[in-house]
User: Which sequence fits this backbone?
């Protein structure tokens, strides 16, 4: 069988749609409903039909036993089992066999057949499990569904002695049970078909209803993305409400990040443009004066050099911050002597502190070896100590203490400086943030130092905290793990 090109195109276009549907939650709920609903319906046929057959056989057996009991009483009274002929007994037995279109056999205590309505096995001996059990006083009922007959063995007891003197074997066809089973199966099958159709309809409708809230979420997200930034609420289910709340939290974080990005770009543009603007003004002033004195040239060129240094400082800090934003896999971790690291930082900064008569004091309780990126950790601690010097009072002090426990090492940097206003303390680690912009400008701050420090500490899975009172000084506490875990 060949598939034409047009048919192949249709099949190719339908296949992804079908695949997408069966991967959906709606399809899985639909199939679950069918599985839960159809399985009992399919089992219903087996249970109902089996129950009917069992009950029909039991009722037929009880009816046969009751009718046979009347004949058995006649047999016991007439000494029929001991060889006495009885036309009345023979007539009752023949009527019984004729009534049910079956066969009746009487067996005496010697296992010899003395009566057979088919007149085939008279005077023959019959020994079987059912016969033996019946002689012991136990009735036997055997239903052969394949051959459609019911066979019963009933003991014939002496009314006076109570002994079993023979047994009656009756076999009757069960065509009526088979016909009843067939008719019931047809009815049950029709009911199954109706129920299955109803279940399919309910399953399809319910799966659409149950998954509708997720469609609302999808539509809300599509409406939100690129159009507006409104929060969504889908309270239909606990799960959809949790999804909506998670999305709203993500949206709020995105808003904050976007605002931070815009502010960062604006601050970078401003910080980079300001030195350039100053240099432009100074250069234009010199060019405007044809016979400017040498002293003025030197003064203006000195100012331009300072602005170049300031621009270079901003660019260097920006590059450091970009490196800090990279993943921790970019760290060059090695075992480092933290005591020596801080002493080298103090050696570099001590001349700057001496110009303002600021004492740098290091208090170290024990030697510390930790797995860190030496370059980034040096930059982080250096920024903290340098800030302690910059934002200090002449003749003040900066106290650095170093301690360790079984898991972490701690660096505390305290100063006697100007302090940080309480409302500004939660923002000082933001990029380009300055608590006192005018004072920061005078001492040459870029507003990136603490952001760089915080990023370096976090890259080492550490933590940094600040405690400060305006006019009384500031304390920074850094905690870093001794062992670096990627």
Assistant:
């Amino acid at each position: 069988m060949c598939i034409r090109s047009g048919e192949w195109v249709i099949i190719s276009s339908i296949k992804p749609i079908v695949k997408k549907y069966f991967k959906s939650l709606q399809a899985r709920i639909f199939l679950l409903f069918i599985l839960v609903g159809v399985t009992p319906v399919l089992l219903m046929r087996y249970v109902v039909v089996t129950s009917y057959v069992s009950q029909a056989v039991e009722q037929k057996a009880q009816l046969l036993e009751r009718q046979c009991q009347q004949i058995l009483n006649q047999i016991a009274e007439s000494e029929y089992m001991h060889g006495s002929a009885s036309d009345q007994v023979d007539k009752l037995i023949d009527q019984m066999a004729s009534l049910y279109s079956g066969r009746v056999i009487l067996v005496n205590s010697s296992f010899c057949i003395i009566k057979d309505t088919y007149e085939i096995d008279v005077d023959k001996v019959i020994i079987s499990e059912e016969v033996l059990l019946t002689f012991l006083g136990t009735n036997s009922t055997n239903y052969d569904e394949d051959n459609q007959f019911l066979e019963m063995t009933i003991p014939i007891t002496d009314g006076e002695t109570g002994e079993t003197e023979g047994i009656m074997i009756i076999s009757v066809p069960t065509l009526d049970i088979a016909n009843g089973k067939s008719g019931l199966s047809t009815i049950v099958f029709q009911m199954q078909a109706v129920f299955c159709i109803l279940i399919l309809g309910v399953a399809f409708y319910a799966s659409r209803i149950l998954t509708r809230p997720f469609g609302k979420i999808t539509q809300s997200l599509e409406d939100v993305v690129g159009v507006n930034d409104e929060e969504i609420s889908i309270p239909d289910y606990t799960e959809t409400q949790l999804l909506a709340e998670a999305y709203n939290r993500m949206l709020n974080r995105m808003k904050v990040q976007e605002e931070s990005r815009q502010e960062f770009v604006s601050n970078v543009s401003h910080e980079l443009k300001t030195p350039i603007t100053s240099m432009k003004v100074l250069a234009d002033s010199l060019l405007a004066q044809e016979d400017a004195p040498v002293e003025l040239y030197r003064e203006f060129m000195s100012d331009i050099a300072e602005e170049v240094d300031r621009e270079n400082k901003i660019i260097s800090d920006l590059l450091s911050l970009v490196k800090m934003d990279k993943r921790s896999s970019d760290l060059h971790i090695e075992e480092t002597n933290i005591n020596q690291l801080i002493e080298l930082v103090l050696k570099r900064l001590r001349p700057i502190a001496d110009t303002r008569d600021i004492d740098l004091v290091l208090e170290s309780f024990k030697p510390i070896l930790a797995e860190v990126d030496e370059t980034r950790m040096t930059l982080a601690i250096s920024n903290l100590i340098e800030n302690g010097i910059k934002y200090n009072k002449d003749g003040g002090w900066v106290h650095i203490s170093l301690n360790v426990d079984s898991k972490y090492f701690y660096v505390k940097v305290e100063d006697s400086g100007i302090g940080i206003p309480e409302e500004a303390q939660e923002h000082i680690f933001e990029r380009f943030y300055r608590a006192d912009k005018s004072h920061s400008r005078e001492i040459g701050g870029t507003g990136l130092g603490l952001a760089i420090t915080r990023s370096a500490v976090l890259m080492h899975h550490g933590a940094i905290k600040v405690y400060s009172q305006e006019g009384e000084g500031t304390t920074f506490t850094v905690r870093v793990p001794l062992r670096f875990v990627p």
About this structure: The CA atoms of residues 327 and 459 lie 8 Å apart. Confidence is low (pLDDT under 50) at residues 437-443.
